[in-house]
Amino acid sequence: MKRSLEGKEIILGVTGSIAAYKAVEILRELTSRGANLTVVMTDSAQRFVAPLTFETLSRRPVLTDLFTLDYEKHIGHVTAGERADLLLVAPVTANTIAKFAHGLADDFLSNLYLCSTCPILLAPAMDRDMYAHAAVRENLDHLKTRGVHVLEPEYGELASGLIGQGRLADPFTIVRTVEALLGHPQDLAGETVLVSAGPTQEPLDPVRYLSNRSSGKMGFAIAEAARDRGAHVLLVSGPTSLPTPPGVTRTDVTTAQEMCQAVLERLDITTILIMAAAVADYRPSTSAPQKMKKQETLTVEFVRNPDILAEAGLHKGSRILVGFAAETDNLLENAREKLRKKHLDLIVANDVRVAFAGETTRVTLLDRQGQVDELPELSKREAADRILDRIAALRGEERG
Q1: In a 3-state reduction of DSSP, which class is residue 90?
Q2: What's the DSSP call for residue 292?
Q3: Does 351 have pLDDT greater than 60?
Q4: pTM of the entire structure?
């Protein structure tokens, strides 16, 4: 059976973090999946792990010196970047992140970054307060806007003894992310995709709220699939227990008003908006400050929540707008009307009776040109890829 990364050329950059020893495990896992690895080490990385370790496991010389030719007598940082299917830097330190963000090139790895035309995946590792520093966050955000993929570090005990976010992502998570990047078309590279997911909750009092049965699984599947196709992905999620897909930037909200604010605040940097969340149409006009006591009857006055897609449609520009229509009857008629009124490019119509249940879904895609595609029952991840196929096709039509 063909291995998942058979024949792929991957450059593994290793920088001066205490987590450098974990790069050995990453290398072993990638080579076991058929990838060919060339390792590049900074001077600081060699203080933690000897190049001989990587040379033995990769069966290739480790590239360290900017001023020598590589093992095939070429200019190393140029030819290595040309051959690669992926540049993975794990761990990557705050120093190297800053070099990449600002175009500094004073060692082999930073020169290689500037010469690389392949996808780039960074897995940061550093102390809690360093990772939270505004300079590091700004540098990472800047790199994301250039299409660099960032696999956020994990929360846990750090080398300093502090507890917080900064631990290198689990090596198996890194390897799975590499498989996802190299196993999917990169037809959304350069796009910033904003996905909303999950339900909203509208409070009646400090204890009770009104919500719906949305699990968030469809939106999370879309976010993960868009990441795998090269997009920078922003996820705005209502209350759900689902874990954040690696490499996706998540913002948690509770109410429809909070979701509207989070989406509109990010609209300027968004090129594709996919509203998969089940947003409450109404909210109680007032929320009781104390728990309401039992009574024979209860009358609650409701007011309309903001229509997030309609608001986004007023500022559509060149963005692609995608909505969802969960209906109990007249599915296609209602979906077409929503597509028209909200200036959408694509709408995903599904029967509300199956929309929130289980791991599969059955949807119909309707686009602005009148094309209708009724999909069979699929896993939510498979449906996500079919939705993104159509979005990528729409973007291709715009450009060409």
Answers
A1: strand
A2: P
A3: yes
A4: 0.65
